[in-house]
Amino acid sequence: MKTVKVLVAASMVAALLAGCGSKTDTDTFRFASELDIQGMDSTVVDDGMSYNAIHAITDGLTALNDKGKTVPALAKSWDVSADGKTYTFHLKDAKWSNGDEVTANDFVYSWKRIIKNAGTYAYMLGDDGASVKNASQLIDLGPKATDEQMNTLGVKAADDKTLVVELNNKVPYFTDLMAFPCYFPQNEKFVEKCGKN
Q1: Which CATH fold would you assign to the domain 48-194?
Q2: In whole angstroms, what is the distance from residue 22 CA to residue 99 CA?
Q3: Where along the chain do its domains lie?
Q4: Cβ(180)–Cβ(125) under 8 Å?
Q5: pLDDT in tens, 15-44
Q6: Roughly how many angstroms between the first and final C-alpha of the chain, as a whole number?
C-alpha cells in the first residue's frame, strides 16, 4: 500500500511539473526571488532584488567574473588616456530584445536620464562615484537642467560603437564601477514608449 501511495504522489508531482514546462511568451521575464522586484528601470530602482533581476537580463560596459575580477561585457575593449581621465570604450555587437542594436548612445541616454530624473544613484556619476565631467553640477540642477546643460555631461557617442567618457578626476576603479546597474544602457525607443510604466 505504501508503494502505491508513493507512486501516486510521484505521478501527481510529475503532472504538476509537466504543466510548468509549457511554452512561454518571449515578452515575459520570469525570475525567482525571495523579495519583490520593485522595478526594471536601472535609472530609478535602488533595491538589491531589482538589481539582481536587471543583472540577469542586461549587461554594462564591464562585468564581474566568477572570481570577482572586472572583465569586458558590452565593451570589448577600452583605451585610457595618459592622464587617466578619458576612457574610450569600443562596444561589442549586441542587440536589444526588440532587435535594435545596442549603441554608445544608449549609454549617453541612460546616464543623462538618471541625472535628469534625480535617480537615487545619480550621485554615482558625480565626484562621489565615477567623477564624470560636469555630473556633480548637473545632479545639483536635477530636473531643472536644460538640454544644453545636459550636453556638457562628459559622456559622448563618437559613433555607434564608440563611447567616450571624460572624468573630472582620475578614478582608478572606474572600470569596476561600470558593472553597477546605474551605469547600464537603456534603449531610448523602448523607454520613451513605456513612459512611466
Answers
A1: Dipeptide-binding Protein; domain 1 (3.90.76)
A2: 25
A3: 48-194
A4: no
A5: 444 444 445 556 666 656 676 766 666 676
A6: 55
Tell me the three cell numbers of residue 49. Answer: 532584488
Task: Find the length of the chain.
Answer: 197
User: Distance (Å, rounded) from C-alpha 167 to C-alpha 175?
Assistant: 12
Q: What is the pTM of this model?
A: 0.79
C-alpha cell belonging to residue 93: 555587437
Taken in order 78, 189, 150, 56, is the CA torsion positive or negative? negative
Question: Following DSSP, what letter does each residue of the chain receive, concatenated?
Answer: -HHHHHHHHHHHHHHHHHHHTS---TT------SS----S-TTT---HHHHHHHHHH---SEEE-TTS-EEESSEEEEEE-TTS-EEEEEEPP-B-TTSPBP-HHHHHHHHHHHHHTT-TTGGGGSTTTT-BTTHHHHHHHGGG--HHHHTTSSEEEEETTEEEEEBSS--TTHHHHTTSGGG----HHHHHHHTT-
